[in-house]
Amino acid sequence: MPSARIYSIGLFIDGGYYALIDKGLKKEGRRVNLKGLTRYIQQSIAKRFGQEPESCLVTEIHFYRGRYRAADAKRKNLLENERYFEDRLIENDVVFHYKHVYDHPDGSVHEKGIDVWYAMETLELALYRDFDFVVLITGDADHEMLARKLKVLKKHVVLLTWQYDERDSTSKALKEEATYHLDINEQLAASPRLKDSICEAI
Length: 202
Prior knowledge:
CATH topology: Rossmann fold
Mean pLDDT: 88
CATH class: Alpha Beta
Number of helices: 9
Low-confidence stretches: none
Strand order of the largest sheet: 5-4-3-1-6-7-8
Helix content: 40-55%
Structural class: alpha/beta
Distance between the termini: 46 Å
Number of strands: 9
CATH architecture: 3-Layer(aba) Sandwich
CATH superfamily: 5'-nuclease
Largest sheet: 7 strands, mixed
Radius of gyration: 17 Å
């Protein structure tokens, strides 16, 4: 008997967006359980597209974010927290993609180019790794064209959002471009116990 086909899932995380989720959960004494969230993504895609849960696997996770140089992070007392945060990602075999950031004189953070890099790398990896599903954890309107181009490559685009603000900052255009929008807020409203499997205590 031939073995069942395995569908590969590439997970691409906008690090700034992910940090906002973690920040919101911190108020409840929790943080994202990436292993649990990954498992839930696999199960959700399998159910949505009529596949067996074990046939849909997240085969790669990529994380994009701006990061201060070590000396600047140390001066801002961020270095230790950053390492703890990265330890959690390393435990889940996450591939890091970092660009250095710095502060403007007005105190704002200069993060030029990270969104473009996220889009270009995601598109390239989706093509060369031949993912069946590409999951974008982001809410940025700038990624609307990324979702559109991924569909041109005949990839199923799953947009995962998780808002911790009363205002929904997810781009409407981005939602419309996605093949499937996995709204974690809606999922939690329907099944509150889900939070125990996709979050963990700090």
